[in-house]
Design brief:
The protein is mainly alpha-helical. The chain has a single domain, classed as lambda repressor-like DNA-binding domains (434 Repressor (Amino-terminal Domain)). It contains five helices and no strands. Helix 2 (19-26) packs across helix 3 (30-37). The chain starts with a helix and ends with a helix. The model has no long low-confidence stretch (mean pLDDT 90).
Length: 69
């Protein structure tokens, strides 16, 4: 989650938006964006994907077996 938090925070700053502005543009609550940027682990994947969509990315579940192949 730390990598996700850093990614979102860095990209948000690159586009020169405050947390409030970015949350409004992505359609998520400010509290959700703050939790993402703080690296909280109890987040809804749909909300994370709304944020990542702004950067052309998406988070998806990965089977650990597929990673080892």
């Amino acid at each position: 989650m730390k990598r996700l938090a850093e990614f979102v925070k860095e990209r948000r700053k690159e586009v020169n938006l405050t947390q409030e502005e970015f949350a409004e543009r992505t359609g998520v609550a400010l509290t959700v964006l703050r939790k993402i940027e703080q690296g909280k682990t109890n987040l809804n994947m749909d909300k994370i994907n709304l944020v990542l969509k702004m950067f052309g990315h998406e988070l998806a579940p990965v089977n650990s077996k597929e990673l080892s192949e």
